[in-house]
Amino acid sequence: MVQLIALYRPPEDREAFLERYRAEHLPLAARMPGLLRMSAGPVEGLGADLPYWYMATLDFPDRETLMASQRSQESRAALKALMAFAQGLVDFAVREVEA
Hints:
The chain is an alpha+beta fold. A four-stranded antiparallel sheet has the order 2-3-1-4. The mean pLDDT is 96. It is built from three helices and four strands. It is globular, with a radius of gyration of 14 Å. The chain has a single domain, classed as Alpha-Beta Plaits. The protein has helices at 14-29, 63-70, 73-86, and strands spanning 2-8, 37-42, 54-60, 90-96. Helix content is 38%, strand content 27%. The chain starts with a strand and ends with a strand.
């Protein structure tokens, strides 16, 4: 399995961010082809401050499926909606899940 991870730095207005994230971005992201599961929620450091306050993981069966999904119309729509309010606040990473 492969995960697309989105890490969010704190916005000025967290409640407004979450309202748009939940109403606009998540429904579009849920339609991404090949998506097995999606989860999102706040994060905190254990014993150290993190630059991030929120994280989402999107699970795909393999890297090939993830990359094909990233080229889809659904993925482009989800990213466009996200960038309307989260540009400069999000970093993306991909990881192979080993266990």
